Amino acid sequence: MSFQHQEINEFSVNFSNNQENEAFRDNYVEFFGITRVRKGTSINEDIELSESIINDAVAMDAGFDSSDLPDYSLGQKNIFGQVLRPKNSEKYANFHTIDWLKDLLKDKFRHRWLNNQKEKGNWLDKVEAWYDAFSGWFLVLLIGLGSGIVAGIVDIGSGWASNLKSGFCKPRFWLNREQCCWDSVLMTFDKFRNPECEEWVFWSNEFGMNNKTQGYFISIIIYIFTSVCFGTIAAAFVKVFAPYASGSGVPEIKTILSGFVIKGYLGKWTLLIKSIGVILSSSAGLALGKEGPFVHVASCCGNIFSWMFPKYGRNEAKKREILSAAASAGVAVAFGN
Description:
Blueprint: E1 3-8, E2 11-16, H1 22-25, H2 51-55, H3 100-120, H4 123-164, E3 167-169, H5 177-180, E4 188-189, E5 195-196, E6 200-202, H6 203-206, H7 212-240, H8 250-257, H9 268-283, H10 291-306, H11 310-313, H12 316-336
Antiparallel strand pairs: 1-2, 3-6, 4-5
């Protein structure tokens, strides 16, 4: 085993290229401006110290008291004269778990840096600190608005597509059956309490089937045909554009909240195809509900909006706080429809 010791100003850094120490080195955590030492290559091979290695050379055990660290909060520079700022981002591989301790400690240092900015910096630094403090409230407001808008579109769209299986509004095609008859002075109701008016045209009447038996069979054929088309289109969209949009999404959301990384599961394409798929699937008469999909849709909104706020978008542990709130918003809009 070879062992090297390097003194860098007030820091003492130990390098070991013994592969048995790899597990010990995995206990190190990364702070802003302070990252784990690069691993050695093989036994008896010299470790080359470059500027990038020296810059990231300080490492300490996860159980170390973070209050004993030197103050890198405001304008402090490293040995190369570079101003240190908190590092929020950490990229995790797909289907891996996040490092909760590392991300939470990064957020602690980021918060400490902003507090010192607010006390010692100029007015722009104070605005940045206040913006960071209120960013969580702004973010949950955007998630609530986004989830409500998507849920409203899904609810209106599914109602329109369901009515389309029996007929259409002749003067205004985009209205469902109830909306089409709102302004009619001759509106009546059938035995199922569905509105009937001159503006609403049944498919049997559109095809000129005045005979009751023929009109019944034409209505049944169109009803089955449109239902099959809706289900087929929904399945094709999910298969081609967003495979993660399948299912309710609740088990996967619970897995993500526990710290598991599934890239693309909360992306914009998943949000779009999931919303369209819920409209088409519920209109097709499939045995499914909106509660699970709305939790998934709201979580997608939370993930997308979180990238507008680096405090949450670049820290996976903090992002899961927002995803928890987003999942709650999804439940709220599902039972509020």
